[in-house]
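Deliverable D2.4 — example input (structure tokens):
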């Protein structure tokens, strides 16, 4: 325990030094494609079985890399036969891919499944909302995760069924969450709120979820694009200011003492993808492309030979104190790490082709 401030820096003091990032000249399209293929193959080999958020992140990553990936179709079709699980907003994350399959094939069963998910979101008592309209992740708590898990479903369902009001609903959720979670001075996002009070822990993956949801909305051309564009710009420029030379942010991105030097790769991968895509939309393109390549070079050094993205934190509930984010599981593959890595490599490949 550090003296005088009541901070527990024990984990930070044992943090491993960052690995040397890849040389950008070595990240050729061939290397990017082969690495992404290994990441995808490793994700398939995980044996994913649930209709839940980690699986949804993997499926979305695969669809960014290879539209209508066979694993995606088999996974979704199997769950539609057996019955999809609904009970939490996290169950909507695979729904974005279900909507994509409808767009790609026109097969009605995919649209019907999306309608069932939408009906659950509209009418189930498990879906609660904060006073400003933000969907709560748990009753009494607004989390950044929700704008990705639920927002991407709304965006993709709206795009593929010609229903712009669903896209606009996702934009409204982005702005409602920003009102609660985006710091008014720094532009960074907190992970969440608890009983109406925002807990200002600037968790990296929370910032990745919100940034990716925002670029998805902007790419869909929603009517709220200008305010969403502005909250995204403020966020990404703040993250750019905090990015270390080796590319990967600390698990709490602002250098908080209890977590300083504790790197977390899934957030860096998600933010690399968001920055590439934001730059393509004309948002600070020169600066954000440079940051995105720096993040990808850092992430590349943590991709194991078998395609596992290492240094990815486990599923993380809202922590009331910063120290709660300091422990990272480096001994277990995490589906969201694989999925966000796929997003990063897919976005980089689009930059090079």
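Example output (designed residues):
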């Amino acid at each position: 325990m550090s003296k005088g401030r009541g901070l527990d820096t024990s984990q930070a003091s044992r943090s491993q030094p960052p690995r040397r990032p890849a040389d950008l000249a070595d990240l050729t399209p061939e290397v990017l494609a082969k690495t992404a293929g290994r990441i995808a193959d490793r994700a398939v080999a995980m044996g994913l079985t649930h209709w839940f958020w980690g699986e949804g992140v993997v499926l979305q990553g695969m669809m960014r890399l290879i539209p209508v990936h066979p694993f995606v179709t088999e996974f979704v079709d199997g769950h539609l036969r057996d019955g999809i699980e609904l009970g939490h907003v996290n169950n909507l994350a695979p729904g974005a891919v279900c909507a994509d399959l409808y767009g790609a094939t026109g097969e009605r069963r995919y649209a019907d499944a999306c309608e069932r998910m939408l009906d659950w979101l509209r009418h189930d008592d498990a879906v609660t909302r904060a006073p400003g309209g933000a969907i709560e992740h748990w009753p009494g708590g607004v989390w950044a995760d929700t704008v990705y898990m639920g927002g991407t479903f709304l965006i993709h369902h709206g795009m593929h069924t010609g229903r712009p009001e669903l896209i606009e609903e996702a934009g409204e959720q982005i702005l409602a969450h920003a009102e609660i979670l985006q710091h008014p001075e720094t532009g960074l996002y907190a992970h969440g709120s608890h009983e109406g009070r925002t807990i200002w822990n600037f968790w990296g993956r929370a910032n990745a979820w919100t940034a990716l949801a925002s670029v998805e909305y902007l790419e869909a051309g929603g009517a709220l694009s200008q305010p969403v564009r502005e909250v995204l710009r403020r966020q990404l420029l703040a993250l750019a200011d905090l990015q270390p030379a080796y590319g990967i942010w600390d698990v709490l991105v602002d250098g908080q003492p209890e977590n300083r030097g504790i790197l977390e790769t899934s957030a860096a991968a998600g933010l690399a993808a968001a920055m590439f895509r934001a730059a393509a939309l004309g948002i600070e393109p020169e600066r954000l492309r440079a940051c995105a390549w720096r993040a990808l070079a850092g992430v590349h050094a943590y991709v194991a030979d078998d395609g596992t993205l290492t240094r990815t934190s486990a599923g993380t509930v809202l922590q009331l104190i910063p120290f709660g984010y300091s422990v990272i599981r480096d001994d277990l593959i995490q589906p969201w790490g694989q999925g966000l890595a796929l997003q990063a490599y897919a976005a980089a490949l689009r930059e090079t082709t």
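The mean pLDDT is 96.
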